[in-house]
Amino acid sequence: MGAFHRLNLLHFTLSLVVIAVNGHNITAILEGFPDYSVYNSFLTQTKLADEINTRETITCLVLNNGAMAALTSKHPLSVVKNILSLHVLLDYYDPQKLHKISDGTTLTTTLYQTTGNAPGNLGFVNITDLQGGKVGFGSAIPGSKLDSSYTKSVKQIPYNISILEISAPIIAPGILTAPAPSSSGVNITGLLEKAGCKTFASLLTSSGVLKTYESALDKGLTVFAPSDEAFKAEGVPDLSKLTNAEQVSLLEYHASPDYKPKGTLKTTKDPISTLATNGAGKYDLT
Ligand SMILES: *[C@@H]1O[C@H](CO)[C@@H](O)[C@H](O)[C@H]1NC(C)=O
Ligand SMILES: *[C@@H]1O[C@H](CO)[C@@H](O)[C@H](O)[C@H]1NC(C)=O
Ligand SMILES: *[C@@H]1O[C@H](CO)[C@@H](O)[C@H](O)[C@H]1NC(C)=O
Ligand SMILES: *[C@@H]1O[C@H](CO)[C@@H](O)[C@H](O)[C@H]1NC(C)=O
């Protein structure tokens, strides 16, 4: 087993992640505004904060603590994540731009659209300049009501990030029952094979550990998969000689029951618990 630790591990995550290159840190910005502390805490819990920080041009539509409490008391974290990702617009809207929308109405794409779980216009938001200087927000699905409206500006860093408060959550039809972005239809072995980790993928299947990985997907999963090359390297034990129990705990050691984009991994200093932490062999990643 010791030799396995010396393998050059290819760090591979199940979701597409980009290394943070921008100056903004949404968590730090919102810490200065206690009215949005619940929203901020959910951005951290859902890891949406990491995705926001990796994007260059973005608008966050924030909800105050009262509006967030109503939302989070009714829905599980995966649904809250879907809803909040619909509140992250992939364009820069400051108050001036909101009031100068050409033809008074537009559709804009959101982080929810990037999850692959948003057919048609589901991941788009309709922004409409209403009478009397009011700006309404709603789902882009035709017939949706614009029952959320712009209330005030919170913070702008032109033209990287804009934070605007809106009165009520934007709810797209079906979003309350949609699967969590990271868990639906992910083909773990397919992804691993594409990433050059065929050996690891076939071990996952033959040992049955694939099921453990799949059941951990709901909460997010990061896999540290050794590449096929790594398996061929000198000093690597012959895995076929390991007992099934040893194979299982070895494979479980290579996944962390949490979704850790690269940005999160780079800043994690505490031991990361892995799926094997509670198994026969104990392995904590440090
Ligand atoms: C905006 O983002 C760019 C990188 O995309 C960065 O170079 C620039 O410093 C940022 N501007 C501000 C004001 O943070
Ligand atoms: C962003 O800010 C929060 C709170 O100040 C801090 O805990 C976190 O480490 C920061 N993230 C990055 C990537 O700098
Ligand atoms: C936005 O919604 C309003 C009200 O439903 C609708 O009249 C308008 O056409 C929509 N805008 C776009 C660009 O689809
Ligand atoms: C996952 O991908 C692999 C390899 O591409 C394929 O053999 C397998 O049938 C796929 N499984 C599902 C459930 O689609």
From TrEMBL:
<dbReference type="InterPro" id="IPR033254">
    <property type="entry name" value="Plant_FLA"/>
</dbReference>
<keyword id="KW-0732">Signal</keyword>
<dbReference type="Pfam" id="PF02469">
    <property type="entry name" value="Fasciclin"/>
</dbReference>
<keyword id="KW-0449">Lipoprotein</keyword>
<dbReference type="InterPro" id="IPR000782">
    <property type="entry name" value="FAS1_domain"/>
</dbReference>
<protein>
    <recommendedName>
        <fullName>FAS1 domain-containing protein</fullName>
    </recommendedName>
</protein>
<comment type="similarity">
    <text>Belongs to the fasciclin-like AGP family.</text>
</comment>
<keyword id="KW-0472">Membrane</keyword>
<keyword id="KW-0325">Glycoprotein</keyword>
<keyword id="KW-1003">Cell membrane</keyword>
<keyword id="KW-0336">GPI-anchor</keyword>
<feature type="signal peptide">
    <location>
        <begin position="1"/>
        <end position="23"/>
    </location>
</feature>
<dbReference type="GO" id="GO:0098552">
    <property type="term" value="C:side of membrane"/>
</dbReference>
<keyword id="KW-0654">Proteoglycan</keyword>
<dbReference type="GO" id="GO:0005886">
    <property type="term" value="C:plasma membrane"/>
</dbReference>
<feature type="domain" description="FAS1">
    <location>
        <begin position="184"/>
        <end position="286"/>
    </location>
</feature>
<dbReference type="InterPro" id="IPR036378">
    <property type="entry name" value="FAS1_dom_sf"/>
</dbReference>
